[in-house]
Amino acid sequence: MARRERGSARSHRTASRAAITVVSTAALQLAAGGQAAHARPVTMVDVVSHADPVISDLSVSALGVLGAVKTVGRAPELRLWSEHGERAVAAGGVGAISPDGAWLLVLEGSDWVLRNLASGAETRLHVEGRVSAPTGAPVWSPDSRFVAAHYDTPTSLLTAPAAQIRDGVPVETFEVSPATDHARLAAYRNPHLLIWDVTRPNPSVQAFSETESYAGSWLITPEGRHAYAYVTAQLAYGGQIPYTAVRMLTVEDGDRRELYRAQNFNQGAHPRISPDGRTVAVAVDLDTPKFGVANSLVLLDLRSGRARRLTQGAAFSDVQWGPDGALYATRRDGGLQSLDRVTLDGRVVTLASGRWNRRGLAASLGHDRLVYTGEDGYGRKAILTWTPASGERVTKTVSDPAALYDLGAFEQVAWRTPDGLRLKGFLIKPQGFSPRRRYPLLVDVHGGGPNTPLLLFSLFGWLSQTPLEWHAWAALGYVVFVPDYRSSGEYGAIINKRREAVVVGDDTGIEADARDVLSGVRWLAGQGFIDPRRIAIFGQSAGGGRINYLLTQTHLFAAGILHDPIASGSVAELLRAASLHLPAPQDLGRLSRRGREAALGGFLFDGWRSTTPTLIMTGDAQHGALDPLSAETLFSLLAASHTPVEMLRFPNDGHEPTTPGGALARYHAMKQWLDRFAPADAAGASAL
Questions:
Q1: How many CB atoms lie under 10 A from the CB of residue 283?
Q2: DSSP per residue over 511-533, as a string?
Q3: Fewer CB within 10 Å, N or C, the chain?
Q4: Taking Cα atoms as reference points, which of 524, 621, 622, 630 lies closest to residue 568?
Q5: HSE of 599, CA atoms in CB hemisphere, 13 A
Q6: Could you tell me the domains of the chain?
Q7: How far apart are alpha carbons 20 and 30 in whole angstroms?
Q8: Judging by DSSP bridges, how do beta strands 290-292 and 264-266 pair with one another?
Q9: Environment class of 527 (CB within 10 Å of its CB; exposed 0-12, middle 13-18, buried 19+)
Q10: CB of 546 closer than 8 Å to CB of 630
Q11: Region 228-238 average pLDDT
Q12: Separation CA 55–CA 77 (nearest Å)
């Protein structure tokens, strides 16, 4: 990347704008709007206020398919879909009906409620503290006697700021919570496992010292005992060694044993016991140190205790057993997910691919039917069913924005990097697109740590998890490009070995990812319909960190926009550890051998190399925003070098906007920046 390209930034370099503005989202008013009688272009107001439900945590019982439905502006609820139609079953966002249809376990606020569906009788378990349930729906035993549920009661590492008056001015002092031991820091989520025997009034609750726990599946032994397989996982906080462990609990006698351990932290590892009770299948990442999401299928033999890796080179999840003794799982494919069948000798056959992003496989009691959700690039959401006889079919269309709005064209595209890797991404073209025109380009770089997949939504579609935000930009006249990159993990073995990262703390492959993004932009610009003077780039979280680095390497972009970017590099890691009273990172000693460049390299202090007009937006750390070190450093360096820059902080929001008003405030700031440095054509620029 030695060659430095020039965009429109040079002409704006002297027009520096350096200002930090604090915006209160509480003061923002959402513009009222209704649905038009005829299809029209979608706007960002539509996107953030669209009552587009998010369906998750599907489960199957004798009564039908149950799912959690969350809609912006409404309380979450559980809905049941069956041959008799659709109906609401209970308030709350997490729950499951027993296989025989007799019982419902649902989380209502801080109460787990066991409800007899015939009599309506309820038994409640109150949980102290704020309850979250990120690991899925409760799991019932096949005989409907036991149900297991995983939930967290998160603990903040920092106390609320104490307000004081010093020398006549207010001062807020932040302190670390009294319990600063490593075990406490590692278990800040406080995971719990609830086991409820419906024949008894009181459930049992087990707390874990690990960072996470994940739901699994049940086995009824020949002796009639009930064994439950689940996962606990430890993230590398406070010097802890990361791991992912598959465990088996026999509820009658409380016996617990560990079946398997992977030497890294895996999110969403859900073990599944085979129908014959001999094998446990689990999807775990065996290639990436510290943090894994791109998963291989592993088989655990319950008799011998041996583990066997079944697949390699593909990213599987949502594994279930089929009636034929094979595994069925979703596989990541450039932002979409296919449904695949995997035999026990490792052969993979794709059963359904294209169009849908398939998520959350649930199996019927006889394993002869799979149910899952699907979303596509036009915002359609549906419940899908697959059977050996009929294949994949749509059983319920939940939403179809294409019936309301005149949308542009969405497609999945692919290109090759200079080192030969074939990457994928999304391309959204304006309605009425003509390859003979030159369009402004908006590049949206997704965030996440190592092996985080490309999703069908970004910052403004986060509330409803919809890709309509990209169509809203396209309606203004932009071509929108959403590239993936190698560290997302689905393109074979991770090329940049993060154990050997030169910069301490930069274990996310930032530089290689940034080069991948740049290669995709150059490929797209070479297609002939992109105006090279109007290329803008936007990134959230780690996507903002990738842009931060990228803008120090090239002048191709006319505008850059970073939202709550990560801080990276050894200095950032050292300061973060000090702020939490933690020991220095274990590998910090390598700096003495690497020298000054290793300590100060990367992008944290290299912002002065950028000449791209840059808008920086952050939230408040007490609401979940990231450490502002990187954002504030970049702002200071750009302002000092007279590069156009503006920084906005949203004190009522965290890492993402939590209200439609907060999202619209960001959108208007972003659009004003684009209008100034990478404007759309006049016809589109006048639209909201």
A1: 27
A2: HHHHHHHHHHHHHHHTTS-EEEE
A3: N
A4: 630
A5: 10
A6: 9-42+405-685 (3.40.50.1820)
A7: 24
A8: parallel
A9: exposed
A10: no
A11: 86
A12: 10
> Looking at this protein, which amino acid is placed at residue 444?
D
Kindly tell me if the per-residue pLDDT of 177 is higher than 50.
Answer: no
Q: Which residue has the tokens 């986060």?
A: 462
Radius of gyration of the chain (CA): 25
Q: What is the pLDDT of residue 171?
A: 61
Residue range 343-369, pLDDT digits in tens: 999 999 999 999 999 999 999 988 999
Write out pLDDT tens, residues 102-157.
999 999 888 999 999 999 999 999 988 778 765 789 999 999 999 999 998 876 55
Contact 147, 105 (CB under 8 A): yes
pLDDT of residue 235 exceeding 60, the answer is yes
pTM of the model: 0.83
Site of tokens 């008894």: 200
The Cα–Cα gap between 400 and 381 comes to 7
Check residues 390 and 236 and name the one with the higher pLDDT: 390
Count other C-beta atoms under 10 Å from residue 284's C-beta: 26
Q: Residue 47, Cβ neighbours under 10 Å: how many?
A: 29
Residue/partner pairs of 399-404 with CB below 8 Å, 24 or more apart? 399/52, 399/53, 401/42, 401/50, 401/52, 401/466, 401/468, 402/378, 403/39, 404/35, 404/36, 404/39, 404/42
Looking at residue 251, what DSSP letter applies? T
Counted residue by residue, the chain has a size of: 688
* Dihedral pair phi/psi, residue 96, rounded to 5°: -155, 145
What is the predicted pLDDT for the residue at 571? Answer: 57
DSSP of 407-455: --EEEEEEEE-TTS-EEEEEEEE-TT--TTS-EEEEEEE---STTPPP-
